[in-house]
Write a structure and sequence with these properties.
Layout lengths: L4 E9 L6 E5 L6 E3 L9 E2 L1 H15 L18 H6 E2 L6 E2 L2 E3 L2 E8 L6 E4 L1 H6 L13 E5 L9 E3 L2 E10 L13 H7 L2 E3 L2 H10 L2 E8 L6 E11 L5 E8 L23 H15 L12 E3 L4 E4 L6
Parallel strand pairs: 9-13, 10-12
Antiparallel strand pairs: 1-16, 1-17, 1-18, 2-3, 4-8, 5-6, 7-16, 8-9, 8-16, 10-13, 11-12, 14-15
Length: 312
């Protein structure tokens, strides 16, 4: 049996992303997005990523029926069933890939010096980035690259914050090739590290909010009292998430590479995951997909690490 392997992915939103809570609430928006209970920070749930990646991989391999719980074929012959599993109607096969929540790493906001990306030192450390320190004061910031303040501080979003240090240098993890990706390099040169106590408030204030209205098909005019607002994670937000491959099939693994479609020959679950994730640059994740929402792009290659305590 293989040792469990963890793949850490870095993604960037190409469009606003709306993964709703499925209900309404009082406040500035009617349709809210999913948040972490403890930090109140928006996220893309692992359940949403799992379903979107499975659906995209099924399309990529020419077996759209495998996107649901009634796929055709056994795990040895169907890479979608092997990787993601199947429900009762599909023969009760457990998947070998676990996909976890995507959390915000760098969040874009406006400043007097142009667009910047805000983050915190703990988030940078957890994602494997180096060079980031936490501000010593609640209303202080650390500026990366060539960002310049003004006499009274640094105006980011709706706040004027004191500058504690400038010209800090942030580095992506040495593993993988994240540090070579142009989009990430540009963002890291314009990072503002804020205090943890402000991060959630600044992110939630910077979410994209749109309004829509129902249209009467008979007249083409707006329905009365049918205006609603919804929020989304804005484009150019960087998020990271983990996927764990725990392949318990043992000797059956040799049967996996027998599948080939349209030049694609996945060598294992990691390839299925990658092929599906790549297609989300076109198909997207979450709601409002036909209204310009949802697309995400993978930044670089995933960073792989194996559990040293796993079975050989």
């Amino acid at each position: 049996m293989m040792k469990p392997e963890k793949l850490r992915y870095l993604i960037m939103t190409i469009d606003p992303v709306h993964v709703g809570t499925g209900g309404y609430r009082l406040g500035r928006v009617d349709n809210a997005i999913v948040r972490e209970p403890g930090t109140n920070l928006p996220k893309i749930p692992g359940t949403s990523l799992h379903g979107a990646i499975r659906s995209a991989a099924s399309m990529r391999y020419g077996m759209p029926e495998s996107s649901g719980q009634r796929p055709q074929g056994t795990p040895a012959k169907n890479p979608i069933v092997y990787t993601f599993g199947a429900g009762e109607d599909g023969g009760f096969s457990s998947g070998v890939v676990s996909i976890y929540d995507a959390r915000i790493l760098l969040f874009p906001v406006a400043s007097h010096d142009g667009p910047v990306w805000i983050t915190t030192a703990p988030v940078l450390r957890e994602a494997g980035f180096t060079g980031g320190e936490a501000p010593s004061q609640q209303y202080s910031v650390l500026l990366a690259g060539t960002l310049q303040g003004i006499e009274t501080g640094f105006a980011v979003g709706w706040l004027m914050l004191n500058i504690e240090r400038q010209n800090i240098s942030l580095s992506a993890p040495s593993e993988g090739n994240w540090q070579d990706q142009p989009a990430l390099k540009e963002a890291l040169s314009r990072v503002v590290i804020v205090h943890e106590s402000l991060f959630s408030e600044m992110v939630n204030s910077g979410l994209e909010v749109r309004t829509s209205v129902a249209i009467k098909p008979e007249t083409g005019a707006a329905e009365d009292k049918a205006l609603f607002a919804y929020e989304a994670i804005p484009r150019a937000t960087f998020l990271f998430f983990d996927a764990v491959i725990d392949d318990y099939h043992g000797g059956q693994q040799v049967n996996f590479p027998n599948f080939e479609y349209d030049g694609l020959k996945p060598a294992g679950p990691a390839d299925v995951l990658s092929h599906g994730l790549d297609l989300l640059e076109y198909l997207g994740v979450g709601g409002m997909g036909t209204r310009g929402f949802g697309r995400i792009a993978v930044v670089g290659e995933p960073i792989s690490s194996k559990n040293p305590g796993g079975a050989a």
